[in-house]
Each structure stands twice: as C-alpha cells, then as structure tokens.
Amino acid sequence: MDTASIRSRVNALWDESIIAELKEYIRIPNKSVAFDPDWRTHGYMDLVVERFSRWARAQQLRAVAVEVVRLEGRTPLIFIEIPGDSDGTILLYGHLDKQPEMAGWRAGLDPWQPVLEGERLYGRGAADDGYALFACLGALSALQAEGIPHARCVVVIEACEESGSFDLPAYIDHLAPRIGRPDLVIALDSGCGNYEQLWCTTSLRGLAGGTLTVTVLTEGVHSGAAGGVVPESFRIARALLERIEDSATGRILPGEFHVAIPAARLEQAKAAASTLGSALREFPFAGSTRPLTDDPVELILNRTWRPALAIIGADGLPPAANAGNVLRPMTALKLSLRLPPTCDAKAASRKLKELLESDPPNGAQVSFTPNWGADGWDAPPSAPWLSRALDEASRAYFGKPAAYMGEGGTIPFMAMLGERFPEAQFLITGVLGPGSNAHGPNEFLHIPAAKKLTCCVAGVIAAHFRRDRV
Fold first, then answer.
1. What average pLDDT does this structure show over 289-314?
2. What residues does each domain of the chain span?
C-alpha cells in the first residue's frame, strides 16, 4: 500500500470537505435525548442525520447504500453498507448525539460556534464523536481510490450514545440479518494518551448512576429556629456517601465495586505510564490542587480499572446569591459511579441503592433512583495480524509505534458487541487526548491527529483483507 498516496487523499478530503462539515455540525445543538427530551420537536437530531447522510451519499464509494433507520419511539440511526472484495465483514461505529453545553467556555469560544485555532477545531461534539462517520468513510474512500481491496463494511452511527445507548440494542436486533457476523469491529469514540501515535483502547469502564434524594422537611424553615433541631439534609447526604467513598482519599469502599486487575493490563499501564510521564497531569487543576497520587502507573489504573465517584449535579440548593437563612427541606445529588471494566453494572446499581437507602441517619426520608447504567468492556487478545497492522499503521502515519491503554469512559456498544460476537477482533480508538475536554467546556478536535487516525483506519482495513492471503 502506498502510504503517501493514502495520506494525500485523506488530507485532501479533510481539508476540502470534512472540516467544513464539522463546522456546520458544531453549530447544531443536537443534545442527546437525556438532555433534550423534546428532541423530536426541536428537530436538531434530524437535521444532523440529514446532513451526515447527504455527505455520505456524495462520496465516491462503490455501490454504497446509506439508510436512515427509524424505529418507533426511538432516536434515528444511520446505517451504511459498502460491499467488499471478500466474505469478511467489518463493523465501524460512531455516534452523532452530543453532551449539553456545560459552563466555563473561555472568552471567544462557544459550544455551538466553531472556532478554528491553529490545529484545533473548538466546539461541542466534533471530537466526541461527530468526526467518526467522516473518518470511517474517508478511510474507505482513500482505499477505493487507490484500488486497494477491502472486506464488506457496515457503518453504524447512533444518536443515543451520550444517554447510555438505550436505543441501540433494538436497532442491532432489527438490523442483525443485515449486519451479519463481523470479524473486526472498529469504534472511533475513545481516547488517546497523546497526539503522537495510534492509541488502542484495551478496556472501558462501566457506569452506574442515579439521583440520591434526602428529604427532612415538607417545606423550608428559618435556620435560626430549626438549626440544631432539624437534621440538615446535606449532612445526611454526606454521611450516606461515606458508605460509598472515603472522603479523605477518594477510595471507593464496598468490595462489590472492585475487581482483580488482569496482569496484562497492569503491564500495559506500566508501559503507558513510561510513554506519557507527566502528561497524565495535564488537567486544568486550580491553584495548588494535586492529583490523587504521584505514581503515574497508579493514576492510569485509577482511571481505567478502579471505581470512582463523581457528583455531577444537584437540586434543592439555591444559587449562593439568592440563598436566605433557611434550613432547606431536601438535597438531591446526581451520582456517577465509574466501574471497573468487568464489574456487573446491574448488580452494582442494586448494591448502590441498598447502601444508600438502608438505615438512614435520623430516620430521614431517603431514596436512590437509578437512571443509568452500562457494563464496561475488556478487549479480547489481539490476533497477530491485527497487532502487526496497528503498529505498522502507527509507524507509517504517526512515526511512532502503536500504544495500548484502557480508558476511563464508557461505550455501552462495546460490551454489547463483545457478547454478541465473541470471535471478533476490536480496534477501539479515538482523538480524545490531552486537553480535548469532551463533555466539558472548550472541547476541541485535534485535526492532524484525526487525519492520521483516518489513515490508520485505512491501513487496518487493508490489512484485514490481506490477513489470510499472506
């Protein structure tokens, strides 16, 4: 394969078409259904689906079939089929729904306004995960233009990932006869340790979450009258959270939320720590805030194979500027508990509810309402051909060998596919690297890395075709 020609074709497509499309995509506030229950009325999701589908149909791909599939009561899904030159099937995955705006965007940036600064395209969703469709089809376009054979490819772009992919199982069941049995899965919704090489995700954490509500009064009362008599709802919430997390260290306490870390993943963490070094600290820490540990290996294991709790929202707390001396009637906290890759998310959610609701302090009215959950994923061993292909592609387009590391996020689709297709090989990768800040303010897509990743996907697809022909 002429890697220079592939690079030239991919770069040209990005520069002449993809970047412009992503700018228009950023302008559309197609928040995921969990954050926009009225998404049908607003029409933003359909607008993105139409734009993406139109672009896909315009590509010079041999006999490409692009369909928008709509199941009753569910978000739409883009299904693309590209016939191949062999009996194998490659399933490529991405999503087009977005996280909400989030506060804190720096001056000159906005979640719904694209801003190109040097090599970075700022705006919500371009890196997570709008670029995926374009990278998948860009890789295939380059291969076909160079006359390089490939297997049949099926591209699935969902619109519910940021809400937990609860619509996706129904679509996979519905489309199962058309998908077939893929022997390679490529997903472009993950992270990268740096922008200097191809990063292959070897595991993903699971997730259990919900809302903890503590109610102590039917209405707020004067804090001077009630303080010292009525238990404070926030204090009770704090006490309940201590059953889950050691507030002094951040360690998650119940053994049900931990798993044994495989030896191979420990070795990968050590290798990744050696590659990344101080880059692991490149978060926007305020003041003299420090990471939980100075050991880079432990930091990687903390964010990939150990549970972690975050409070991501709250109700019952008025804005500070409008807070009177009132003992509030209730406190509600939105919890997000990241789980190790092989921890059962449903069992963890049940345990979380049991721990939080049992024997509440002062007899307070306490409820925990689970509202999301997803199993993690641990990659199967890579076949020799895939390991070679990943390394060759990374060296050809990044100039460095491929690297391997687990990621702390969750892609529900991966656990689903791992169960359905246990014999399949997986390439899970992405462009969510240092500073890209998916889900937060100032999200950006690192364009050179996205171009090189597109080339790497082309290289792996070509190697898949050759794997039994060497």
1. 96
2. 3-204+376-466, 207-272+305-374
